[in-house]
Write a structure and sequence with these properties.
This protein is of the alpha+beta class. The protein is about 30% helix and about 25% strand. The protein contains eight helices and ten strands. The strands form two sheets. Strands 1-8-7-2-3-6-5-4 form an eight-stranded mixed sheet, with helices on both faces. Strand 5 and strand 6 form a beta hairpin. Helix 6 crosses helix 8.
């Protein structure tokens, strides 16, 4: 279950707005662990509802890199960093933060968070379409030919209900299925180095999920989080 809120109580996230402009992506994942712990943020994972949204974002960030010669060239604020099958990454020149545009999976924020393993990564910062009269968040874009429906954009947050509790406890918890057990196992080892430890139930879930894998599933699992947190 996910909690949705406006960003009124999350002023600590305001600096992320700079990276949300010019495209339809939204931020999910491990960077929020660092932000709320007041730690240095090295990279930001940007996700998209569709491949076309991803391609639009690539075009937008490309247009702000040195050497770009298109008609839509903008001021040079990023440098190209790396690219693989899952991610195209840029480095923000002023802050040194990496922006990683993720193309392995697409979906709405709740769909992306549902694919993540540990609860401390299940946090999203996104732009919601809000109806002016009702203040309700719309699931779909309004019909451009229906002038009766007026909307505006607001920044919202979404997180799993135990996100802050588990973050404070430095507890690794899988609160659902484990779709990519090898990736989760490797990430668990990495998080242990940072002082985060799995609860007993999570350890048993991971062990069981690993036992059920065949060779093909191991390969797919290892590839999912390549370049992603």
């Amino acid at each position: 279950m996910f909690t949705r809120e406006d960003r009124g109580n999350f002023w600590i996230l305001n600096w992320l707005d700079e990276f949300m402009i010019g495209h339809n992506g939204f931020i999910c994942g491990g960077c929020f662990k660092n932000i709320f712990n007041k730690e240095n943020v090295k990279d930001i994972d940007m996700f998209f509802e569709s491949e076309s949204d991803y391609e639009d974002a690539v075009q937008y960030f490309d247009s702000m890199t040195p050497g770009y010669e298109g008609d839509d060239k903008r001021s040079e604020e990023y440098t190209f960093y790396y690219e693989n099958d899952n991610v195209k990454a840029y480095k923000h020149i002023r802050t040194g933060v990496r922006i990683e545009l993720c193309s392995k999976i697409f979906g709405k924020p709740e769909e992306i968070l549902s694919q993540f393993d540990f609860s401390i990564t299940k946090f999203a910062y996104y732009k919601a379409i809000i109806e002016d009269e009702t203040g309700a968040e719309r699931e779909e874009e309004p019909d451009p030919f229906n002038e009766d429906i007026k909307t505006h954009i607001e920044y919202r947050v979404m997180y799993t209900e135990n996100f802050f509790q588990h973050l404070h406890m430095k507890r690794l918890v899988t609160d659902g299925n484990i779709p990519y057990p090898m990736s989760t196992f490797e990430r668990m080892l990495r998080y242990v180095k940072y002082g985060y430890f799995p609860c007993r139930e999570t350890k048993l879930k991971i062990i069981k999920a690993l036992r059920d894998l065949d060779d093909r599933q191991v390969e797919l699992s290892e590839n999912l989080y390549d370049g992603m947190d």
